[in-house]
Specification:
There is one protein chain. By secondary structure, the chain is an alpha+beta fold. The chain has one domain (about 40-130). The protein contains 9 helices and 4 strands, in the order H-H-H-H-E-H-H-H-E-H-H-E-E. The chain has helices at about 1-5, 10-15, 15-20, 25-35, 50-55, 65-70, 75-85, 100, 105-115, and strands at about 45, 90-95, 115-120, 125-130. Strands 1-2-4-3 form a 4-stranded mixed sheet. Helix 4 packs across helix 5. The longest helix has 12 residues, at about 25-35. It is globular, with a radius of gyration of 19 Å. The N and C termini lie far apart (about 65 Å).
Length: about 130
């Protein structure tokens, strides 16, 4: 019995689904953020961990962007718009709450007016201020 246990090879990566995931698309997002790092003061995002990995500042009001804040009314679409106008971020990254953010006509028109979308990133929607392109 002991011999049988010693000959078993651990198959950790096959047993844990999160270890099987290909993280290349997420690395591409971080690399894209870093491309404009020198000209970026603020990153507006609903996935703040990307800002952390790219070493970019995220406005404190959205650093904790969560479903709970949306459902309890602690974060509204009007506030999202006001924060965009207040901080005028050089980059915008939207990944988790697309439906919430894009259904605001003010936010959508603001983004379309001042930002260009990076079409080669599929994991999230990435926008860069038109003056930086």
């Amino acid at each position: 019995m002991i011999f049988a246990l010693l000959t078993l090879k651990p198959k950790v990566s096959k047993d844990i689904p999160s270890l099987q995931k290909n993280y290349q698309p997420q690395f591409a997002v971080v690399n894209r953020l870093i491309e404009h790092k020198n000209s970026t003061k603020w990153l507006f995002t609903d996935v703040p961990i990307y800002g952390f990995y790219a070493d970019l500042l995220v406005p404190p009001e959205i650093a904790v962007f969560s479903t709970k804040r949306i459902k309890t009314g602690q974060l509204s679409q009007d506030e999202i718009y006001e924060l965009l106008v207040k901080y005028r971020p050089e980059q915008i990254l939207i990944g988790r709450f697309k439906g919430f953010i894009y259904t605001s006509s003010d936010v959508d028109s603001y983004i379309n007016k001042f930002y260009s979308k990076s079409n080669d990133i599929s994991v999230v929607d990435h926008y860069v201020l038109k003056s930086l392109k």
